[in-house]
Write the structure tokens for this entry.
Amino acid sequence: MTSTPRRIALRGHVVSCRLDPRLFSWDEAVIDIADGLVVVENGIIAAVGPYDSVRSSIDSATHVEHYPECLLAPGFVDSHVHYAQAPMVASHGTTLLDWLTKYTFPNEERFSDVSYARSVAKFFFDELLRNGTTSVLAFCTVFPQSTDAFFEEASRRNMRVIGGKVLMDRNAPSSLTDTVQSGYDDSKALIERWHGNGRLRYAITPRFAPTSSEGQLRSASSLWQEFPTCLVHSHVSENLEEIEWVRSLFPNRAGYLDVYDDAGLLGRGTVLAHGVHLTRDELDRIAATSTSLAHCPTSNTFLGSGLFSFNKVNAAREHIDVGLGTDIGAGTSFSLLTTMGEAYKVAALTASSMNAYELFYLATLGGARALGVSSFVGSLEVGKEADVVVLDPRSSPLLAYRSDRVTSTEEQLFALAMLGDDRSVAATYVAGERAYERRFDDD
Ligand SMILES: [Zn+2]
């Protein structure tokens, strides 16, 4: 018995990157179809093109969802976020190391309770979809049950996400530390349970060099060798005080990055958040090992950590894949539109100027490449999974006023990055199914 394929189509202004606009001309890098049609069959994009030429490929029974005023874009990719920190977002400012002690650790202790973890995971994924984010690379907490809660919720929503249990065997409260052996065993059990389960993938997740012993970092590397299709996810060179601390904890290493390098934790599949203060040599090493970076502008400015420099990244000897991260809860918004706007401002403060397509790329295909999932998501192209965000350029009076005056798609995207937020997401589709639809309350 054969079943009829489930087919739907979305009509609107299709915008998507197929290449990196830093490296290619806009004509080559960007798909821009004013009246476009995306045809989806069993969750996979079967056709994309101008409505007038693609409409003949669908029969009259196919449901067409028409968004005449909206942009159809790939679902956003958040390259670095802590799902467990949603409850502590916007806690009043200190710097990184105080922040961890004062807010992060007491907050994460609550995740030993799996019912609490489940309630936060539900809120977190609701918030992602409300912001048009369909893929994330996320930290959970040291408790394996908090990681189960994360994957259970993602699995229920059929989302392409990556997450992992935090490894942390020192310099944290005893209630939050594992050991080299228990961290390895718990991570391995989670990999066997979740990695490759539907659209889910696992990331081996040492929090950062100060909270893992050399033994734990080496154990994480051994686990990666056993499961080489997993990712490795950590932080690097976020704050000057942190860098000094790493220097005192690892006096025999050449610097912060060398701690991970020496442990065998750099390479394709490793994503390091921040990298604000990486040196020229360290960036060359990141490039040479095909390690990726996640740029988290709202977090870096909120904690006063410093300014990530694309000029320095672009000057590396080889290309470095960079994604954009919200870093909730030190970051201050779930919205990748808001985060694109803040990335623009950080670039402006570092003598660099990013255009709208470069920003948009970071939040979509660039993030998907950094996370190693670009063969599945990150652009609206035939054969990819149909994760789509519907963006409304008239979602606020000011944005509508500005949008009435734009003269190009690039200007429209730029206005969305500067003025848009969660209100600008009219709908979010996950594997071709509508998972979120904005409703205005008339009361
Ligand atoms: Zn982080």
